[in-house]
Amino acid sequence: xxxxxxxxxxxxxxxxxxxxxxxxxxxxxxxxxxxxxxxxxxxxxxxxxxxxxxxxxxxxxxxxxxxxxxxxxxxxxxxxxxxxxxxxxxxxxxxxxxxxxxxxxxxxxxxxxxxxxxxxxxxxxxxxxxxxxxxxxxxxxxxxxxxxxxxxxxxxxxxxxxxxxxxxxxxxxxxxxxxxxxxxxxxxxxxxxxxxxxxxxxxxxxxxxxxxxxxxxxxxxxxxxxxxxxxxxxxxxxxxxxxxxxxxxxxxxxxxxxxxxxxxxxxxxxxxxxxxxxxxxxxxxxxxxxxxxxxxxxxxxxxxxxxxxxxxxxxxxxxxxxxxxxxxxxxxxxxxxxxxxxxxxxxxxxxxxxxxxxxxxxxxxxxxxxxxxxxxxxxxxxxxxxxxxxxxxxxxxxxxxxxxxxxxxxxxxxxxxxxxxxxxxxxxxxxxxxxxxxxxxxxx
Length: 444
Fold this sequence. Notes:
With 444 residues, the protein is of the alpha+beta class. Helix content is 30%, strand content 27%.
């Protein structure tokens, strides 16, 4: 009988261990994928791809116990050799190979994409068609390490603020937002929908845990084919109870962004350098009312306002430009959106019911967050449902939470892929989505 008592330390070393614990002259063992091979006559550089980055191994004819032709690009190998310093090598170190053990070999050596190039000079379509291959490129992979950092920061920061992580169903009887942008399906001979957001559930749980958050996919059946829209994306959601006003929500998001930028600067410095990212300032984020900023941007840039109830993409760009020029900020909170463009659960402004106590956060001219204060009074909520000509059918469980008492609360949802896109400097959200789902793509 075998027993397991935890993780056993491996004989192979990772990049961090080589840089911190190993010394020049040590005999070390590492594994990795052969990223590329550069032939230089009797010497060759075998670049290994590791989870932390690239590692240079040196093959010297006559000194290694194997032949270079035994190694193929894309093979997974284990190398043993002598660690040496070389300031021109990735990380300033390299391994002079003595022996190699083959872990796996590719069935096809002809790579569909030149992943060893610094930048993949190919179309987005090709990158997505060969996603598992294109992401082996160092720069392509770095985008998703940054995305990991943003998600990690969201979790860590909110745990530190007393939030409880929840997991809500993605199959439901009806959508939280209403409207026609819902994916419908059959669920054991009953109609069902894919969740547009965790809105109902996180509100109900605010009455249980006070503060909750979730990172999960949401689905929108919108027939958009733009650079900013997806039909499935990851939403960073939180909801918090016992708020004094919707300003508490904006303060919490500002705190998250501050935490995230510090984490990225510290833990993801390599990826930031690889991508040439300049992290945005988050010390102070301006907030301005919807109607006011529309007018200010229109006047400054000669824009004609066509839709008084919502922001068009062009207006978001102009507002982002205005915030940068006037307030030196890449971010701007746009508050008090018109009530007719917000869901029924959005709390109307007591001072002017035409507007809501809600906001969007724009980052470099694009909306990445929608949030605000919710109606917590049962009577007020049901009256607004009735006033909008809606039915309570399918919302009985949701409304029951309010019928039996709910604290003042509010929350938000952040589009993870959009936030990443803006941060790494891409102009198409598919560039920062692992496996995009849009009007035309269901694979890979």
